[in-house]
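Reading group handout, session on sequence-to-structure problems. Before we discuss, look at one worked example. The prompt was deliberately terse, the way you'd type it at a terminal:

> structure N-acetyl-gamma-glutamyl-phosphate reductase

The input record follows.
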Amino acid sequence: MKAAIIGASGYTGGELIRLMQSHPHVTIDVATSRQLAGRPVTSQHPHLKGFCNLTFENPDISALDTDIAFLAVPHTAAMAYVPDLLEQGIKIIDLSADYRLPKAVFEEVYGTPHTAWKDIPYGLCELHRDACKNAPFVSNPGCFPTGATLAAAPLAEKAHTVIYDSKTGVSGAGDSPSATTHFPNVGDNFTAYKLTSHRHLAEMRQELVHLGSPARCYFTPHLLPVNRGILTTAHILLDEPIEQKEVEKLYQDYYKNEPFVRYQRPSLNSVRGSNFCDLMVEASENRVVAVSVIDNLVKGASGQAIQNMNLMCGWDETTGLMTPGMLP
Ligand SMILES: NC(=O)C1=CN([C@@H]2O[C@H](COP(=O)(O)OP(=O)(O)OC[C@H]3O[C@@H](n4cnc5c(N)ncnc54)[C@H](OP(=O)(O)O)[C@@H]3O)[C@@H](O)[C@H]2O)C=CC1
Ligand SMILES: CC(=O)N[C@@H](CCC(=O)OP(=O)(O)O)C(=O)O
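And the output record:
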C-alpha cells in the first residue's frame, strides 16, 4: 500500500517515516510540508539519509494518489483535510486531537468550532482494538492519555479517584522553537505546567468512563530535560485496601496477551525509540501506585498510529513495530 504523511517535516511525521522503514506492506510516497516544499526530506531529517529519497511537497489534498493518509499536523488543522480524504476513499489515521472527543467536549476544551466532526474509533489499541479493526478512519490518542490510561486501566472499575502525575520529554511540544523548548529554559531544569487544566484531562476522563470507572480524575504534567519519553505516576485510590500480590496478578493478567505492554520496572531508557509501554504497580493500604513509561513519539504517537494502521488493514498488529528500546 501507499501512504502519505501530511505534516512530514515535524517530529511525528519524521518518526512515521523512520518506523515505516521496517514495515513490509507500506511505502511512503508523499511527504508534505508547506514551508519546505521542494527540499529533500533528509534536509529536515538527516537521520533518514539512505532510507528516504522523497522530496517534501505541498500537494492538492483533494487529488492525492494514495491508500492511507497520516495526519501529523497540529490540532484544528487536521479537520480541514478529512472530508477530502474520505471523499477519495483514503484510509485516515489522525495523530492530532481533532477526533478524540465528542464534538461539544472538543469545542469546549480546544475553544474552537469543529467544522468536520465524525464519530470514529479512539485508537488506544489495547482498549479499542475491535473498533479499530478494519475501520476506515481512526483517531490516534494523545501521548499523556496513552501512558496514563494504560497505567490505571486494570484497576479503573475499583477506583474512586485517579491522580495522574506525568513527566514528559520536550519533543512532545513539536518541532517549532518556543520559550518552553528554549535550551536554557529546559536544560538542567524541571517545571510543572497547566497544573489543573491540561487539555488531555478530558481524554483521560473519557477513557476511565469507557472502562466503567466511577473515578474522579486529575492530571498534572511536568517538563523533563530529556528529548523523548513520558513517565506517569498514577495514584489510584480505592475504597478497600488491596494486597500487593493481588494487584500485581491483576495487572499481569490484564496485559498478558498485549504485545506492547510489559510488566517491569519502568525506565525511559527501556522504551525509547520503541512502541512498548512498561509498567509496574505497588499497593499500600487503599492506594495503588502504578507507574508507566512510553516514548511519546512512538507508543504516544507514530508507533501507535502504525499499530492502528495494522488493525485497520487486517495485518498482524505488531507488523513493523517489534523493535526494542535503546538503553541507555
Ligand atoms: N510530539 C508528540 O510527542 C506528539 C504529537 N502529537 C500530535 O501530532 C501532531 C503533530 O505533532 P508534531 O509532529 O509534534 O508537530 P510539529 O510541529 O513537529 O510538526 C507539524 C507538521 O505539520 C505541518 N503543518 C502545520 N500546520 C499545517 C497545516 N495547517 N496544514 C498542513 N500541514 C501543517 C508542519 O509543516 P509545514 O508547516 O511546513 O506544513 C509540520 O510538518 C500534532 O497534532 C500533535 O499534537 C500527538 C502525540 C504526541
Ligand atoms: C511538552 C509538551 O508541550 N507536550 C504537549 C503534549 C503534546 C501532545 O503530544 O499532545 P497531543 O497528543 O494532544 O497532540 C503538551 O503538553 O501539550
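Points for discussion. First: The radius of gyration is 19 Å. Second: DSSP finds eleven helices and twelve strands in the chain.
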